[in-house]
Amino acid sequence: MTQTLPPQAQISQPGIEAEMDPRPEFEPRFPGVGRLKGKVALITGGDSGIGRAVAVGMAREGADIAILYLNEHEDAAETVRLVQQEGQRAFRMAGDIGQDDFCRMAVEQAVTELGRLDILVNNAAEQHVAEDPLDISPEQLERTFSTNVFGYFHMTRRALPHLPRGGAIVNTTSVTAYKGSPTLIDYAATRGAIVAFTRSLALALVERGIRVNAVAPGPIWTPLIPASFDADRVSEHGSSAPMQRPGQPWEVASCHVFLASADAAYMTGQVVHPNGGTIVNS
Questions:
Q1: Where do Polar residues bias regions lie (predicted)?
Q2: Residue 48 to residues 120, 123, 221, 253, Cα–Cα distance (Å)
Q3: 88 in Cβ contact with 63 (< 8 Å)
């Protein structure tokens, strides 16, 4: 392993982007051309990392943005500012997507504030390192599935009545769904569940004209990394990828923007793999 980042760690999840060194790169590399003009997107985990990059990328393409987040208020406020800087309206709300009541209230308030809902991005996630499978407690297992799987179900169920024909759902999964992880077993299991969820939901919604796809990032520089691993492991993040570096959030968010747009009109049930060159053969 080689050093790719300065050693650093944070004490709790989901992590704070403002404390990272260097800051993740979220800004799109190209001017918008109105691919999402007039649309409204709701993004879970939209305060930072991949979620922030998706919010800014979709705003640049003309969408108004609602972001949901757990408790990272300063990061969320900055993302709202960035969306508004792109000339779009923004709404934010804090809470736990593992709770169905919160998901119901969040969707209702987002629709009230922004007038409609066209795109749902299920992105929020948590992960916890366990060197031994016996260290995964029932409480940790339930918490990881609550956020990473149940949260996606809750948000989808609450959003579906508002999504029109032509709407889109984009789920964030992970390369760990395909290659596994010996120290993130419960997390990898949830990511595999999201692949199956994406494929099944896509088939169920074809007749409604709603497309469902997913993005499976590799090692990306987001707040979840220093909030999950010790400083030494953080310093080597991404070095095992064929490109020998961590990806940046903007390099992933462009996939979400594409899948949400009419450019991907003939794609549903698919997974895009911005993972630095890892071949997953699926």
A1: 1-13
A2: 17, 11, 11, 12
A3: yes
Domain encompassing residue 193: 33-272
Q: How far apart are CA 16 and CA 82, in angstroms?
A: 16
pTM for this prediction: 0.96
Q: List, for residues 138-179, the tens digit of each pLDDT value.
A: 999 999 999 999 999 999 999 999 999 999 999 999 999 999
Q: Which tens digit of pLDDT belongs to each residue from 4-27? A: 999 999 988 889 999 999 999 999
CATH code for the domain of 55: 3.40.50.720
Q: b/e for 240-272, b at 16 or more Cβ within 10 A?
A: ebeeebbbbbbbbbbbbbbbbbeebeeebbbbb
How many residues belong to the chain?
282
Q: Where are the alpha helices (DSSP H) in 183-248?
A: 185-205, 224-228, 231-235
Distances (CA, A) of 252 to 8, 109, 133, 175, 185: 23, 28, 30, 12, 23
187 is catalytic: yes
On whether residue 2 sits in a domain, the answer given is no
Amino acid at 276: G
How far is Cα 151 from Cα 69, in angstroms, rounded to an integer?
Answer: 12
Distance between CA atoms of residues 7 and 63, nearest Å: 37
25: in domain: no
The whole-angstrom separation of Cα 122 and Cα 102 is: 15
Largest CA distance in the chain: 51
> Quick check: is 18 in a domain?
no
Which residue in the list 152, 178, 187, 266 is annotated as catalytic? 187
